[in-house]
């Protein structure tokens, strides 16, 4: 009986904790959204910080990321083409390539890439700022942390994931054509017709929304996890671990929901 009571209490505490974390994230996002719509937010200083965030998150890693996307795309396209030939489905190889790589795998891997590189860094930085009272110092100096520290990171994450996923998708389309048809122009018309058939308005809008949600997840969750950090230095690694686990589950949830809405 005591064990059952303890289990119920433990489960209840976890559920309350999840709701508390979720409420804090949505409240933070609502505050950021209101600030985003405020015309006074967009001065030169804020714009410069946003540009720097996009540079550090996307532009700085572009060569490495494109190399990573190129290798992944070539490998997956080769596997799909080989499997399609074995089962006599070569005519569907281009469509399978686009659906698997461009619509699903590359946006998901882009979000993971940004999460591991930038999300963890954001979580660590915000946690250290919280522990060292730097956020309080900024507020005391009338420098709003939301405007100059947090909102640029959210915007930078969304823009970076959308741009990188788009570039990876274009690269995969090019690799798919070269792998299936080679340097011949004979396959250009059927390949472009396949692309046009797949990428209707609904699919394009869904892909854009999914990438934007990925970008939001890899920045919003680390920021809020960093703000939850107790003012003890040894709690920073714990905060980063907790934040990155939440990011991973959020990314997987977004992908699963996207697949369910699209194919079920």
From TrEMBL:
- Keywords on record: Membrane, Transmembrane, Transmembrane helix
Give me the Gene Ontology terms describing cellular component. ATP-binding cassette (ABC) transporter complex
| Pfam families, sorted | MlaE
Which residue ranges run through the membrane?
15-37, 57-84, 154-180, 201-223, 243-261
- Source domain of life is Bacteria
- Presence of keyword Transmembrane: yes
**A GO molecular function held by the record:** phospholipid transporter activity
Q: List the InterPro entries hit by this protein, alphabetically.
A: Permease_MalE (IPR030802)
PANTHER family in alphabetical order: ABC TRANSPORTER PERMEASE PROTEIN-RELATED, PROTEIN TRIGALACTOSYLDIACYLGLYCEROL 1, CHLOROPLASTIC
Which protein is depicted?
ABC transporter permease
């Amino acid at each position: 009986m005591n064990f059952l009571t303890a289990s119920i209490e433990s489960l209840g505490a976890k559920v309350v904790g999840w709701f508390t974390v979720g409420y804090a994230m949505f409240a933070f996002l609502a505050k950021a959204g209101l600030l985003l719509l405020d015309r006074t937010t967009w001065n030169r200083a804020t714009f410069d910080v946003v540009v720097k965030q996009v540079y550090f998150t996307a532009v700085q890693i572009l060569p490495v990321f494109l190399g990573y996307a190129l290798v992944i795309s070539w490998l997956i396209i080769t596997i799909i083409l080989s499997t399609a030939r074995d089962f006599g489905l070569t005519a569907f190889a281009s469509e399978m390539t686009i659906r698997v790589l461009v619509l699903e795998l590359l946006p998901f891997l882009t979000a993971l890439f940004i999460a591991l590189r930038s999300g963890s860094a954001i979580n660590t930085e915000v946690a250290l700022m919280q522990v060292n009272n730097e956020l309080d110092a900024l507020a005391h100096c009338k420098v709003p942390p939301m405007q100059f520290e947090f909102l640029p990171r959210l915007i930078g994450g969304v823009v970076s994931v959308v741009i990188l996923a788009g570039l990876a998708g274009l690269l995969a389309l090019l690799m798919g054509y070269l792998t299936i048809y080679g340097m011949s122009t004979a396959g250009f018309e059927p390949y472009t017709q396949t692309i046009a058939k797949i990428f209707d308005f609904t699919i394009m809008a869904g892909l854009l929304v999914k990438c934007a949600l990925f970008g939001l997840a890899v920045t919003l969750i680390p920021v809020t996890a960093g703000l939850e950090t107790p003012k003890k230095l040894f709690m920073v690694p714990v905060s980063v671990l907790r934040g990155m686990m939440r990011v991973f589950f959020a990314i997987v949830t977004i992908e699963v929901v996207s697949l369910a809405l699209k194919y079920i």
